[in-house]
Amino acid sequence: MEQVGRHFRPELLNGLDEIVVFDPLSHEQLRKVAGLQMKDVASRLANQGITLNFTDAVLDCVLAGSYDLAYGARPSKIWLEKKVVTKLSKMIVVDEIDEDSTIHIDAGPNKQDLVYRVEKNGSNEEDESRN
Fold it and tell me: 19, 80, 89, 124: most buried, per Cβ within 10 A?
């Protein structure tokens, strides 16, 4: 609080009801958040009859590509939208994924890229795509 008092004028501080100081999230907490965000993507796909499976390595890949101590979990959501949701959307548009498909996402060999494998249920067709 002393640092806040040194940087802001008393008039401003008096106008605030409360000041909440946040501690940075730990790696494990960020991993849980990334898992919840991936589950949200899976839920959105489930509404279209599409199943999404992902490995724990995917969560590590998300954090490796998005970690920023200053911003907490926000960058992981943005990263997922840009890298995962956009990729899946493009795959749906070009009919690589359709209703009753199962998508498996894993980290690539370099642990920085994601690998998408699509099983089209009802046929034994499998497609693999790298991000």
Answer: 80
